[in-house]
Amino acid sequence: MNPIRRNERSLVRDIAHARAGDKGNTSNVNVWVYDPADFALLKRNLTVERIKREFPRLMRGAVTRYEIEHLHGLNFVMRDALEGGVNASLNLDSHGKSWSYLILGLKLDEKS
Amino acid sequence: MTEGNRIFRIGTGAGFAADRLDAAVDLAHRGKLDVMVLECLGERTVAFAHRDRLADPRRGYNHLLDRRMRALLPVCHASGTTIITNMGAANPRAAAERTREIARELGISGLRIACIEGDDVSGLLSPDQPFMDEPGTIAAIERHIVGMNAYLGADAIIPALDAGADVVIGGRLADPSMYLAPLMSRFGWKNSDVAALAAGTLVGHLMECGMQITGGYFADPGIKDVPDLARCGYPIAEVSADGSAVITKLPATGGFVTAATVKEQLLYEVHDPAKYLTPDVTADFSHVEIEDHGNDRVRVSSAAGRPRPEHLKVTVGFDAGVLAEAGVSYAGPSAGARGRLAAQIVESRLKITHGLKSDIRIDLIGVSSLFATAGKANTDSEDVRLRVAIRTTSREDAELLLWEVESLLCCGPAGGGGFRGVITPAIMTKSVLINRTIVHPTFEMFET
Fold it and tell me: How far is A111 from chain B (nearest CA, A)?
């Protein structure tokens, strides 16, 4: 997997894969690097502050980042981040299943 | 069990209410399974099932129960595979009776079908009950309650298995508990064996979404290619007596099992990885080891645990009116501009002409919809769809929305086509806690 060459990487998607899930109005997105050597870069790029800053209207509650060091993954838990969640959201994707690609679509800063 | 009673084989034959059936039949035929689990109930599915039951007391169970049972009962009966399912939804008794009828029609005799009840706790909760994870109480919602179901754990399922059930049908059985129960029953794990319970819960958690661990919900062309997703296989867990397991799938099926597919599922709908609460155990997945042995075989181990919570989670479903959605499409040069004009017209008509007070969502699919609130847009699309949505308790307002969007066909921008509108019933769910000592699951055996 991951045929993206080092000099062609521009998005988080180029170094990591992710899956989103929902519980009520809380979204969680787990993110895993393909190459353990990129884990430090992922952690520098995906900070709690950046997630909140990139999507200010969406991320209305607290964001927590859990680190699974030995498996080279991060789990973001984002409260009040689903426009009300499946009970209330008017988003076509009321579960926020696509939120994994919000994170993967963020620009990767190799020099961060 | 195979291999001298050392390995217990559990397969998943459905990971949600609308999951595929043909791959489950293949797995039942070739999987040499001790148990097949059919997980078919979401938080809200049970509330919708209560509405079905109110409309017809013989319904309220999974709509696909007939088809699944007709296809799987003969194969599982022949191979000695026990079926465990929550397809009973809001009416496990009717589901068990229907399953018995189907078994008789198929000429299967001596089948023992256990019906588990006791998850419906609507008589046991006070209206002053506070919500589990947000402010408020049940009474403060002031909407019609459609159902209250407690998540039952392995201890509700084990007596039925120990009594020799070939099929176990319940309602709100917790997803991982349907996997843990047969493991506890076969390996003799006790409630005090928290490490084993956590290991079995990890197996259940990984397996409960079916193909989400065998390559489903994973593919991203060019970077995460998955072989033959059209014929993806369901997962098998080969579980050892200590609870460690190999996750695999049948040969000659599509998809794959790799460390990456297992990782994505490991934290699917998990918040704190060190604190995954089920009715059976407080599981800690933060030190789980994942070893990819190749050839679709991934070993998982090292789940840890602490004792189960004192309380069970209860999902309370409330009637929430309807969701009304309607759309029209625009394509070609200036599609985006015409779509935006259509959006302005509909907004003006609904808010100003008709004085609609509900929150109105207006998206331009192809430009900005799923990520609209996240602030992302693609402005050069030549194929866009206006989508308008409201939630309301007024049927009249819902119908008005559809009418106004359809009127764009003659009264809106040039070249609009493809109107569709749909009004669907809406449910709101909230979670409360109940002391487990007042919840008393029971089982009754139905035989052919």
Answer: 23
